[in-house]
Design goal:
Distance between the termini: 68 Å
Largest sheet: 9 strands, mixed
Strand content: 25-35%
Oligomer: single chain
Shape: globular
Radius of gyration: 29 Å
CATH class of the largest domain: Mainly Beta
Structural class: alpha+beta
CATH topology of the largest domain: Immunoglobulin-like
Length: about 650
């Protein structure tokens, strides 16, 4: 069977054959929304001399299967247990865009696995409420399924269309099933979910800018616009961090899934797209443009992502008309009006590159892509080695900080969020340390500690928390991960940590299990400290909360030849062991030793220092705690007496 798109032009009777569809025969046409009465109106495409028909041939020429009737359900028939059990393991998608009409049509083969504990009698499949289910087939046969509208802010419209696909035989735990699905509709910017919670419309639209258009198409995926099939528990904004946790859970569940997308874009004459990005990766465009033919015939551009494996990400799609500019390890796709700012971005990339090479290696795994957003007020978006932002004029300090983070993603592309995001934030703080001093870098760390302390469970019995190896919340895979890398820096040393980051191979670390990471092995092989299992068990593979350090007492006594011996009694009220730096200072010297303080335990550390000691400090801000990150005790005049009090500072 062959599948194709036909453009019927009255004056030429020309035929353009574009791309092959997977799966079985089906007719696919753009239709106005029928499953949601409040769906946005579809903009009309410009007048032309022809008519666009999306069609697929059938086994017998001239025949096509009738589109099945889809019942609309008043209430969802799927339940949360069904939605949580579904894990997507393969996406094979054919996506057609009519940019002038803001329309999309999708045909896809999706494979799902039952990761629940009981058999599934139905499989819930969700898409944006601006899209309409047209057909779902299994084993080459149409399936009759109800469609219900869910209130969920995982999509910018605030609603999802959920198809509850009944199964002839229940899907047992661990088993997989494949569906051939088709859906279409219009995707325009919508700020409905933000307006519903009181956000001003202008600000809301600059946040929820996803949509299909001629000069720019941006579809960021689950959490912004659900343009591909998904299955998730409905969540709403304003319910704490549930939406953001659900976004993280979605990324974690599809990590490791196979993904391929064949893209076809129909565009008006004179508006040829120049860049396509699928899941953050450039996809070369093949363009057929009728410009200059004297006919008002839309052009066609095609691209193919090829087979790939998803990391911790939501599948995304960008198509735009932009001009490319080369920068060190990056390509800047800019609007004409923003081209004067490109040079400053290229300079920032040049400034940051030697620093990243020193830590991560001479060559990145891919080029960074900088994509100019349509409006200067639009909120930036980042996925992998793609940063969609406004290419604006800014100070070198600002651009250097942005590029230190963004370019790290070109080097470090781990499927584990705590390494992908954590290393990028870690390198950002190291850049601050390099140019503004250690105190400024530690201040940057401290700015996120309060939110982390609030999220962490007070005791392991209260909540399992989120082990970094399977973290779904940004406060863990960004903030806590950055702290952990600072701690590893102190425990293993800069050369060892750098060697492990250079040797890290993301292909050896795919999978959703929270077990031993290859990164731990690399650290142990690169350094003199051969056993980091305790550290990784407490801080990466498990979540025991944060330590709660205090200085219970500090005693000093004169030794010989001007030396003094200081005994520091350190307590840990938390449920996680931690190795903390203990520093004793005199007027002219300081001495630091690291000491392992067990969970819910105490330890006495004795430190010899030249000169009369004046103060003791435990923790220097590199270890996150529940209430403070630096503890200082000033020693009294009587060297042999305990201090009158201690002080904790943040």
């Amino acid at each position: 069977m062959k599948f194709f798109i036909m453009r019927i032009v009255a004056t030429t009777a020309s035929l353009i054959s574009i791309a092959a569809f997977p799966g079985s025969a089906q007719k696919l046409t753009f239709q106005p929304p029928a499953q949601n009465e409040t769906a946005p109106a579809t903009p009309q495409s410009p007048q032309s001399n022809g008519q666009v028909i999306f069609s697929r041939s059938t086994d017998e020429p001239g025949q096509s299967a009738p589109t099945p009737q889809i019942p609309i359900a008043a209430q969802p028939s799927a339940v949360d247990a069904d939605r949580q059990a579904v894990t997507f393991t393969d996406f094979d998608m054919d996506v057609r865009l009519r940019s002038a009409a803001q329309q999309i049509a999708v045909r896809a083969l999706v494979t799902v696995r039952n990761d629940g504990k009981t058999p599934l009698s139905r499989v819930p499949l969700q898409i944006s409420s601006s899209l309409n289910w047209e057909r779902i087939r299994q084993n080459g046969k149409d399936v009759t399924f109800p469609v219900a509208t869910l209130n969920s802010d995982a999509d910018h419209t605030g609603q999802l269309h959920e198809a509850a696909v009944p199964l002839v035989q229940p899907l047992a735990p661990g088993q997989i099933i494949q569906f051939d699905v088709a859906y279409s509709g219009a995707i325009a910017p919508s700020a409905q979910r933000l307006i519903a919670i009181g956000t001003p419309q202008d600000a809301a639209l600059h946040s929820d800018w996803d949509g299909i258009g001629v000069p720019f198409t941006g579809l960021r995926g689950f959490g912004n616009v659900v343009w591909y099939p998904a299955s998730a528990v409905p969540v709403i904004l304003g319910d704490g961090a549930r939406l953001f946790d659900e976004i993280g859970e979605h990324k974690l569940r599809i990590a490791g899934a196979r993904f391929r997308l064949r893209l076809t874009v129909e565009f008006p004459q004179g508006n040829t797209p120049t860049v396509a990005l699928i899941n953050g990766h450039p996809a070369p465009l093949t363009v057929t443009d009728a410009a200059g033919s004297g006919l008002e015939v839309s052009g066609v551009a095609t691209a193919d992502s090829g087979g790939a494996t998803l990391g911790f990400e939501s599948p995304s799609l960008f198509v735009a008309v932009r001009m490319p500019h080369t920068a060190p390890n990056a390509t800047v796709w800019a609007l004409p009006e923003d081209e004067p700012a490109v040079a400053s971005w290229a300079t920032a990339a040049s400034d940051v590159t030697p620093f990243l090479q020193g830590w991560l290696g001479q060559r990145p795994r891919s080029q960074l892509t900088l994509l100019d957003l349509p409006d200067p007020q639009d909120a930036p978006f980042e996925t992998g080695a793609l940063l969609a932002t406004t290419i604006r004029m800014a100070s070198p300090e600002q651009l250097d900080g942005i590029l230190a983070h963004a370019l790290t993603h070109a080097w470090m592309q781990s499927p584990r969020a705590w390494l992908s995001e954590g290393v990028a934030h870690f390198m950002g703080t190291l850049w601050v340390e390099k140019h503004s001093g250690r105190s400024q870098a530690l201040s940057a760390l401290e700015s996120g500690r309060a939110a982390l302390a609030l999220a962490e469970p007070e005791t392991p019995a209260q909540s399992p928390g989120q082990p970094l190896a399977a973290a779904i919340s940004p406060v863990y895979f960004r903030t806590k991960a950055t702290y952990v890398l600072w701690m590893l820096r102190d425990v293993a040393g800069d050369p060892t940590l750098s060697a492990a980051l250079r040797a890290y191979d993301p292909s050896q670390d795919f999978g959703k299990d929270a077990g031993r990471s290859s990164f731990e092995t690399l650290l142990e092989q690169a350094g003199t400290r051969r056993d980091l299992s305790r550290f990784f068990a407490d801080w990466v593979e498990g979540d025991k909360g944060l330590p709660d350090i205090s200085i219970e007492s500090a005693f000093s006594s004169a030794a010989s030849a001007g030396n003094w011996l200081v005994a520091v009694n350190v307590a840990n009220g938390g449920y996680v062991s931690v190795e903390v730096p203990v520093t004793v200072r005199s007027e002219s010297n300081s001495a630091t030793q690291r000491v392992l303080v067990p969970a819910r335990g105490k330890v006495v550390q004795r430190i010899l220092i030249q000169g009369k000691p004046t103060e003791v400090q435990v923790n220097d801000g590199t270890i996150p705690e529940t209430t403070a990150s630096v503890h200082v005790t000033r020693l009294g005049d009587s060297a042999s007496n305990p201090p009158s009090g201690s002080q904790s500072t943040q």
